[in-house]
Structures are given as structure tokens and as C-alpha cells.
Amino acid sequence: MASAGPPAATTQPALPSGTAVLRTIPYAFILPEIFCGTWVWILVAATSVSFPLLQGWVMYVSLTSSLISLLLLLSYLFGLHRNSENWKVLDSLYHGATAILYMSAAVLQANATIHSESGPNSPLNYHLNSAASLFAFITTFLYILHAFSIYYQ
């Protein structure tokens, strides 16, 4: 009777480092997340923040998550993760939590957009708020994709 040998070890794929981060899913989503999140912040700031309570949260979430995502991207580019499996957990938890926060910010920005239809400088503010809402929902979708695609690697 021939022995089949030891079972094949299942190895986890290595975490990317360097420019391979930009070509590997889900890590390739980080750059669009930063880009779209920065546009949310720029567009809301351009409206002169007519609704400080609503849009203050939107600006906080967009700026903070863009900066943390930039730090995460830099850590992947420079290989600071040292191929540790804990980074996958950290990455998934960060992107999942940020997706929830971004969803709340996107809904608040959509509410601010509705309220900006009638007011001073209404056409300009309405268009800027509409664009900010669109980018906020796109960014939310990118964070959700990133958080869930880690499980399908």
C-alpha cells in the first residue's frame, strides 16, 4: 500500500510589498480610496460648510480615513508588515470600520445636499454637495470592497 504522504500544507499568500501593492487586490483599492476620500473633503470644504454639524462629521471622516489609508499604503509600500498575518486582520478591521463610518458620512452629506437646494448660493453649493455625496458613496463602496475581498484571497 503506497503512502500518499503528508497532506499538502496550505500556505497563505504573502502580503505584497513595494509596487506590487498597486497591482494586488484588495490592496489596489487603497489608492482610489485616498483619491475619492480627498475629493469628498475638498468638495465639502468648497461649499463653505453651510451645515457644520452634518458636514463637520463628513470632513472629519474623509480627512482622517484618507490620512490613515495613506499611512497604511506607505507601510505596505515599504514592507513594514514583514508578511505578518496580523496585518490582514488589522487591514480588514480598519476597512470594515471605516466603511461603516463612511456610510454614515455619505448619508449625512446626502442630507446636506438636500438641504442646500434652497439657500444662498444654492446652485453652486447644491452641485458641490451633490458631487461630494457621489464621491462619499463611491468611497464607501471601495472600503466595503476592500474589507470583504481580504477574505477571498
From TrEMBL:
<dbReference type="InterPro" id="IPR050578">
    <property type="entry name" value="MARVEL-CKLF_proteins"/>
</dbReference>
<protein>
    <submittedName>
        <fullName>MALL protein</fullName>
    </submittedName>
</protein>
<dbReference type="GO" id="GO:0019911">
    <property type="term" value="F:structural constituent of myelin sheath"/>
</dbReference>
<keyword id="KW-0812">Transmembrane</keyword>
<feature type="transmembrane region" description="Helical">
    <location>
        <begin position="57"/>
        <end position="80"/>
    </location>
</feature>
<feature type="transmembrane region" description="Helical">
    <location>
        <begin position="27"/>
        <end position="51"/>
    </location>
</feature>
<dbReference type="InterPro" id="IPR013295">
    <property type="entry name" value="MAL"/>
</dbReference>
<dbReference type="GO" id="GO:0042552">
    <property type="term" value="P:myelination"/>
</dbReference>
<keyword id="KW-0472">Membrane</keyword>
<dbReference type="Pfam" id="PF01284">
    <property type="entry name" value="MARVEL"/>
</dbReference>
<feature type="domain" description="MARVEL">
    <location>
        <begin position="21"/>
        <end position="153"/>
    </location>
</feature>
<dbReference type="GO" id="GO:0016020">
    <property type="term" value="C:membrane"/>
</dbReference>
<dbReference type="InterPro" id="IPR008253">
    <property type="entry name" value="Marvel"/>
</dbReference>
<keyword id="KW-1133">Transmembrane helix</keyword>
<feature type="transmembrane region" description="Helical">
    <location>
        <begin position="132"/>
        <end position="152"/>
    </location>
</feature>
<feature type="transmembrane region" description="Helical">
    <location>
        <begin position="92"/>
        <end position="112"/>
    </location>
</feature>
